[in-house]
């Protein structure tokens, strides 16, 4: 017989505060001379000779049930008074256990909210921030799946983060405004579905495995950010009023943390662009002008040179200077390009990420492409590839101390299961992965790939003797 998780937690709470519910039936058996007795939660007493309701702090819990006496004697008023005393003691123990469990549950949700806020403010990737919220909501609500949905570009809601303990086909789905529930969610309302498999309001096709679903708005800074969803497995109890209130407070705290994290990223991004603008000005005002002056000087020396070999050598130097000036001007243009001016093609966005990484690295990583990246790679896979590229470049900068990084985006790759896909390879010549080093970045890459049906791993780098690290991330289109 399956044990209700809520009942199991209540019994655990009874033990933790010193209550022993099993002692009540044992006492009844000893005092009343009955062969069997039990406390049935939510039972109606059918099959027993006597069943007396138990109330815990005014709320019904179940019944103390007694079997018939072997000699057939009926229960008299004295017996009933004794049973009522035992029932009162049981109700008191159960009520205290419920209060204890409610306090522990509130503590779990508060600790979860604090952990989410800390993680969001420490992470510089908005997609990772949403995933953190989904993971925490799933764990705290004891749900099978946690999701975060944001308003889609055209209409409806897009599932941008999924926490389900494995691969999920929900990621990237756009739910159109096709029923009143989606409209209500977009208006910032909450919703409770008792059984997703039979409720006509269900908003996705993957509902057979789910029972109760709780959908809460994420509001912060006076605006609607999205919807947080928690879906329990079929057969699990629905969300109680106390659980809904705790989840509602968690959603409010998570939304505020998302807004704070977004503001922090904006400040950091502004600082980066200010620094890039300063570097661009220095390159233009100092380096390019000096190179141009040197080129003019060499051009005059070339005209005055008598020996043909000298003129030819100086001419090659002038040509190289011209090429160098053009490359620096292209770099200046890239540095001054604002975030809203970047074209939407994946190839351009990859090049932009590589160019931005050059500022903290002190050098520009190599980058090449294979296949028609822009035409083959879908939007969801492309967004996750860019996030994986940022993570890999960040790891190289923070931990590898590399002097060379090569980035390859191959849209002609074949995945291990035979499906076509895209493969991102980031190789460096740094110090490699140490035995006791942090692996959170690598775990993020694995999680992103697996959520799309792909994989991620690492191996030797491109340094001498295989030094450094090569990160390979791949996913279907």
Structural description of this entry:
With 477 residues, this protein is an alpha+beta fold. It has three domains: 29-121; 123-239, GAF domain (Beta-Lactamase, 2-Layer Sandwich), CATH 3.30.450.40; 342-476, Histidine kinase-like ATPase, C-terminal domain (Heat Shock Protein 90, 2-Layer Sandwich), CATH 3.30.565.10. The protein contains eleven helices and 14 strands. Residues 9-18 have low confidence and may be disordered.
Task: Kindly report the CATH topology of the largest domain.
Answer: Heat Shock Protein 90
Q: Outline, from the CA principal axes?
A: elongated
CATH superfamily of the largest domain: Histidine kinase-like ATPase, C-terminal domain
Derived from helix and strand composition plus strand pairing, the structural class reads: alpha+beta
Tally of DSSP β-strands: 14
